[in-house]
Every structure is written in C-alpha cells, then in structure tokens.
C-alpha cells in the first residue's frame, strides 16, 4: 500500500525535492501529501507549490510555547491523513509528546555519521576532530535529538583543505539518494 508522506522543512528543501521527485516513479511505495514549513519564507515551499502539492506553514513565532506549536503541526498531519513524516532540514526541536505520537513513523536526515556529532555544526566538528570521513544518517526520530535507530548511512571522504562549506556540499550530494533509499526501505519493510 502506498504510504502517505508529509515532509517538514525549514529552508531550501533540497532533500524534500529529492523525495518528491523519487515518489513520482511508477511503483514507488509512497506519495507526498503535505509539505509543511515552520517559516513562511522557506525556499522549498515555492517548489512544492509549483509541483501542485498541498503546503502548510506553521510559523513557530506565532505560538506561545512548543506544545502549542507541535499541536498545530500534528493537526496539519492528521488533516492530510499522513502515515509517515519525513523531517528534511526541519530546524525546530519537537516535544516528546508530539514525537511519541509518531513513533516508528517519523524519520530525519542528519549530516553526520551518527552517533558522531548530533546537533549543529557537524561538518566543522568533523574537520576539527581530524576525521578522514564524514557523511549523513537517516534515522527514526525519538525524543532525544538525533538519537533514534539508524536506518541508513552514506559516507564521503574529508579532503585536505576542506572547509565546513566544501564538506557540506560533498555531503549534501549523497544525502538525497540516501534519504530516497531509506524512505523506500521503511515503506516496504515497516509494519509499524
Ligand atoms: C541537510 O544537510 C540535512 O541533513 C540537515 O539540514 C540540511 C537541509 O538541507 N538536517 P535541505 O533543506 O534539504 O536542502
């Protein structure tokens, strides 16, 4: 059965675009039903609208607390009848109460080889540590940040002279296909 996927973004949305493009393929076990941003100016919203996809903005600055913000997101996800939630550059921490409603059905892509470097500035931290490889991880979302079960990882070398920007560019080049592969995998294997 085709899973109904909501994708949450905060910015340019290149991972979201890769997921949407992949879902156009005949036989892909998922379809996009909502692109939701917490910022009205998130670049990815323009692409989603041009694709004719349903979009929503839940602007975190308009809520008094995180619980109310998360409740508004949950309402949008239910209204879209989403089965699965993909976080794709969504830069807000979600409350445990919300996360627990989506256990086993919410995924994130993180630009490091978890468990190394949860949180921000992953590429600079990899360079500062003298790592010879970096990469990205798709994982289940649990209340603790970037700590859920790993679904898949992809690796790139860290090259001499790399800056956080050059490394980020190399990593984003492998993020898209990893997220697509992992989404396909969870859709066909997950009975959760
Ligand atoms: C990606 O590097 C992703 O791993 C991280 O945020 C970035 C989002 O990029 N969580 P984009 O908006 O998908 O282009």
Describe the structure.
The structure is a single chain. The protein has 192 residues and is α/β, with parallel strands linked by helices. The protein has one domain: Rossmann fold. It is 36% helix and 22% strand. The protein has six helices and seven strands. It has a seven-stranded mixed sheet with strand order 3-2-1-4-5-6-7, sandwiched between helices. Helix 1 runs parallel beside helix 6 and helix 5 packs across helix 6. The protein is globular and about 50 Å long. Bound molecules: 5-O-phosphono-beta-D-ribofuranosylamine. The site of 5-O-phosphono-beta-D-ribofuranosylamine (GRF) has 14 residues, from helix 1, strand 5 and helix 6.
Describe the structure using short key phrases.
binds 5-O-phosphono-beta-D-ribofuranosylamine; seven-stranded mixed sheet; 22% strand; 192 residues; Rossmann fold
Write a compact overview of the structure shown.
This protein has helices at 14-23, 44-50, 66-79, 96-101, 122-128, 164-189; strands spanning 3-9, 30-37, 55-57, 84-87, 106-110, 133-140, 150-157. Helices cover 36% and strands 22% of the residues.
**Could you say which structural class the secondary elements and strand pairing correspond to?**
alpha/beta
Through-space gap between termini: 13 Å
* Average residue pLDDT: 97
Shape: globular
Distinct small molecules: 5-O-phosphono-beta-D-ribofuranosylamine
CATH fold title: Rossmann fold
Whole-angstrom Rg: 16 Å
Fourth-tier CATH superfamily name: Formyl transferase, N-terminal domain
Number of helices: 6
Low-confidence stretches: none
Query: What is the CATH top level name?
Result: Alpha Beta
Number of self-contained structural domains: 1
């Amino acid at each position: 059965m085709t899973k109904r996927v909501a994708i949450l973004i905060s910015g340019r949305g290149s991972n979201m675009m890769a997921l949407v493009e992949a879902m156009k393929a005949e036989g892909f076990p998922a379809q996009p039903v909502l692109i939701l941003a917490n910022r009205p100016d998130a670049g990815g919203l323009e692409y989603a609208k041009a694709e004719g996809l349903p979009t929503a903005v839940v602007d975190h600055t308009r809520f008094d607390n995180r619980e109310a913000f998360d409740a508004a997101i949950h309402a949008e996800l239910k209204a879209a009848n989403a089965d699965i939630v993909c976080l794709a550059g969504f830069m807000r921490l979600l409350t445990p109460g919300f996360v627990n409603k989506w256990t086993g059905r919410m995924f994130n892509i993180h630009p490091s080889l978890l468990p190394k470097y949860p949180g921000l500035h992953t590429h600079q931290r990899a360079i500062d540590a003298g790592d010879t490889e970096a990469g990205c991880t798709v994982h289940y979302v649990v209340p603790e940040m970037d700590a859920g079960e790993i679904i898949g990882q992809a690796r790139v070398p860290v090259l001499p002279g790399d800056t956080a920007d050059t490394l980020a560019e190399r990593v984003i080049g492998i993020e898209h296909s990893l997220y697509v592969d992992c989404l396909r995998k969870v859709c066909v294997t997950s009975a959760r």
